[in-house]
Specification:
This protein has 103 residues and is of the alpha+beta class. It is built from four helices and four strands.
Length: 103
């Protein structure tokens, strides 16, 4: 049987879940918005030892401010709404939400 070694970032985005990992800790470690990380987990966080295929986080994390809308964020960061949905696995925003934007 073949074992995967932890070699940092890899081109396939594979990560073996470790004891004590949480959705929040993976979001912080790999700079992923919670909605995007949750989408790769299928709605339920897997047990230690399971393999996840994490999406690539291209861009930077941004905290949505009160009064900002999806349209205003897309304009501010030079993104289309389709690109926003692809990066964040959601089509809405709310204050304090962490999202990936161009940058």
């Amino acid at each position: 049987m073949c074992e995967l070694e932890d070699c940092g970032m890899n081109p396939f985005g594979l990560y073996r879940v470790r004891e004590g990992d949480t959705l929040a800790s993976l979001c912080a470690r790999f700079s992923l918005p919670p909605a995007l990380a949750a989408a790769c987990c299928g709605g339920r966080f897997p047990p230690a030892g399971a393999l996840l295929q994490l999406p690539s986080a291209v861009g930077r994390l941004y905290t949505v401010q009160a009064g900002e809308t999806l349209a205003s964020l897309c304009k501010k960061f030079g993104m289309s709404e389709g690109e926003f949905r692809e990066k964040n696995a959601c089509s809405y925003v709310y204050p304090t939400q962490l999202v990936l934007v161009n940058g």
